[in-house]
Amino acid sequence: MNRPLIAIPARFAASTSALRYAAEVNARALIEAVWRAGGEPAGLHPHAPGGTADPAEVAARLARFDGVLLPGGGDLAPYRYGGGEAHESVYDVDEEQDGFDLELARQALGAGLPTLAICRGLQVVNVALGGTLHQDMGGPEREHRHVVHPVAIQRDTLLEQATGAGKVEASCYHHQRVDRTGAGLTVAARAADGTVEALELPGSHGWFAAVQWHPEDTAHEDPAQQGLFDTLVRAARERSRPPRDRC
Q1: What backbone phi and psi angles, to 5 degrees, belong to 245?
Q2: What pTM value is reported for the model?
Q3: Chosen CATH of 5-245 out of 3.40.50.880, 3.90.1150.10, 3.40.50.970, 3.30.390.60
Q4: Which pLDDT value is given to residue 246?
Q5: pLDDT per residue over 11-29, tens digit each?
Q6: Percentage of residues in the chain having pLDDT higher than 90
Q7: Which of 66, 131, 205, 213 lies 20 to 30 Å from 231 when distance is taken between CA atoms?
């Protein structure tokens, strides 16, 4: 069976141990989770000169793909969501990365491409739809870095269907969180401290889920986390299947 093609925008890296130059990368655990699910992960070069991506170009590039995965990464520039002056904790902001990811999110959702957004990816979608972020959750005692904690999932959500659970143990690494949700988005899960841990988009033309944690960290041993990737790839396969085969 052909593997549906899953677009994953690359992350810029200043250096890697195996290369002599700056690189474009994604976490191996993330790629392997998509592969286990039966998908063909494909890195997408972030092209947004001056921090602005051409909508027509992004749409044309996406046309060949069956699904999208928006991965984790550094912080979005606060001005992208009217956040004012950047908090001292904001890190790894890249204008081209921001511009490309935001347009990719808009185009993927507009086209109804099955989409899974992870950590930064959730924040990108929220900002792309007009939402805002808390720039910092309050330092080491309140942030969710290097934390595995329980997350309560709302009933009758796509997230509940994908994970098969009402509560999951989430591996988190973030110091920012959703403030105001973007247009049409609803909260699908929260942490005990009230932090939004997942978003959905009821009425979306294609399957969509966004989680603030990193399911790839434990997907190799936790069926609930792997279920997110399985569901993404299943939706992508269904979308790519010729109409005569959908019976």
Answers
A1: -90, -5
A2: 0.95
A3: 3.40.50.880
A4: 46
A5: 988 777 777 788 888 999 9
A6: 86
A7: 131
CB 212 within 8 A of CB 122: yes
Please pick, among 103, 169, 214, 220, the residue that the annotation labels catalytic.
214
Calpha distance 68→23 (Å, rounded): 21
Integer Cα distance of 229 and 214 in angstroms: 12
CB 153 within 8 A of CB 188: yes
CB burial class (10 A; 0-12, 13-18, 19+) of residue 2?
A: exposed
Spatial distance between the Cα atoms of 50 and 46, rounded to a whole number of angstroms: 12
Vertex 202: Cα angle to 196 and 203 (nearest 5)? 155
Direct distance between the N- and C-terminal alpha carbons of the chain, in angstroms, rounded to an integer: 17
CB 77 within 8 Å of CB 86: yes
Q: Which of 119, 144, 172, 200 is catalytic?
A: 119
Residue 18 identity: A
Whether 214 is catalytic is yes
Nearest by Cα to 98 from 84, 113, 80: 80
Q: With H, G, I as helix, E, B as strand and everything else as coil, classify residue 244.
A: helix
119 among known catalytic residues: yes
Q: Is 95 a catalytic residue?
A: no
d(CA 158, CA 186): 11
Let me know: does 97 contact 12? Beta carbons within 8 Å. yes
